[in-house]
């Protein structure tokens, strides 16, 4: 069945967070290793969400977690960072195929992020990166974080579509396993340099995803009638 | 203060619901007066939301209220309408200035609907009418209906903006009174034929709104630096 909507992981799948955040860090904190800082900052992402997923903390938008984690990483490195550096996550550059691929997909499908980023963060990032979303779905809609099944299901429900009419697109196998368990179709698009040249994870699909494509333009070609 | 975001009423302000719904009704129910049917259908809109605003019924998306009201109006007229006719509200045509005006405003501001329509309805309507929204705000975000102040405030909060950094744009004075009471800036754009050639309401502003503009292109010019 051709999906009526495609929903996308964003950090890593649509945008190159590592080099973009490093650029923003470097502009504000010239004395730190900016790429190492970006990697350490991102490493705090999942533990911060885990407490919320587990119910140990109420839902807090990712913007606030990013700010808290910024100060933790800066403190660990013995530097002081301004709150405003948190907005680095709104200034991430897309992989080269993303904007033309999304424009091609948008002609036949609803396209929306299903990210752990908030509506505010995804809206500003879309303006920076020219991502032509039809609407913003994901964590804010569900008031919870992926890979909890409710996040995928709430995104489908917001479109009034059953999960089987929606395809999750991600560069991360674990995101797709969770989406499939929630009843969605799945598409894997690898991003082999998300974590740098020596990346070892998510280089290949680890299951029989419904579509496997080298980039978003090829994904659009595979879904065309 | 220049608003960082502009949020818009949609039915009447951005799109000509009356003639568009009449066109869809006429295609499916050739024996009824299609314009009269559209007007009667719309007349059920506010009473249906009122029960939800007052707490007499939990939040139900407008798509469902439209379907319920469709069958009520059809029944009153002694005809049977298919559920699918409810999707007429996803096929409304924009006033001629809306798309170019929104594109001009989008270069400097976040633009989003703050409508009583659901995310699903606003997303499909945006695809039909080529409305270039940055995200979809409004009733679904707040799980309540305008003019309750929480709907305007939840839309600002989703963008992580204080109400005074957001401007509500509407063709209806009552919508702007409610937005102003919630702390937002206000812009009035009259739509003197929303209810047909003999319209008597909302022809002129009834308060000193922050901006009064004949159309969205003029609104963009007035907000330009």
UniProtKB/TrEMBL annotation, chains A, B:
One GO molecular-function entry: (S)-2-haloacid dehalogenase activity
Under catalytic activity, the entry for this protein gives: an (S)-2-haloacid + H2O = a (2R)-2-hydroxycarboxylate + a halide anion + H(+)
The record's EC number reads: 3.8.1.2
Q: Which UniProt keywords apply?
A: Hydrolase
Q: Which Pfam families match?
A: Hydrolase
Domain of life of the source:
Bacteria
What does the similarity note say? Belongs to the HAD-like hydrolase superfamily. S-2-haloalkanoic acid dehalogenase family.
Summarizing the function annotation, the protein's role is:
Catalyzes the hydrolytic dehalogenation of small (S)-2-haloalkanoic acids to yield the corresponding (R)-2-hydroxyalkanoic acids.
Q: What is this protein called?
A: (S)-2-haloacid dehalogenase
Give the organism, scientific name.
Roseicyclus marinus
């Amino acid at each position: 069945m051709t999906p009526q909507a495609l929903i996308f992981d964003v950090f890593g799948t649509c945008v190159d967070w590592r080099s973009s955040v490093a650029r923003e860090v470097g502009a504000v904190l010239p004395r730190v290793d900016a790429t190492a800082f970006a990697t350490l900052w991102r490493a705090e992402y999942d533990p911060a969400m885990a407490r919320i997923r587990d119910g140990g903390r109420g839902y807090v938008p990712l913007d606030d977690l990013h700010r808290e984690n910024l100060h933790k990483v800066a403190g660990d490195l013995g530097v002081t960072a301004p709150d405003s550096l948190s907005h680095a996550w709104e200034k991430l550059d897309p992989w080269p195929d993303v904007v033309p691929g999304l424009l091609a997909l948008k002609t036949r499908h609803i396209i929306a992020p299903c990210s752990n980023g908030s509506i505010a963060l995804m809206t500003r990032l879309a303006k920076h990166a020219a991502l032509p979303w039809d609407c913003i779905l994901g964590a804010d809609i569900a008031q919870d974080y992926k890979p909890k099944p409710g996040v995928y299901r709430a995104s489908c429900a917001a479109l009034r579509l059953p999960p089987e009419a929606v395809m999750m697109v991600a560069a991360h196998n674990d995101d797709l396993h969770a989406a499939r368990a929630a009843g969605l179709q799945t598409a894997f698009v690898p991003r082999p340099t998300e974590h740098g040249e020596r990346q070892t994870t998510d280089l290949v699909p680890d299951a029989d995803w419904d579509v496997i494509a080298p980039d978003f333009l090829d994904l659009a070609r595979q879904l065309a009638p």
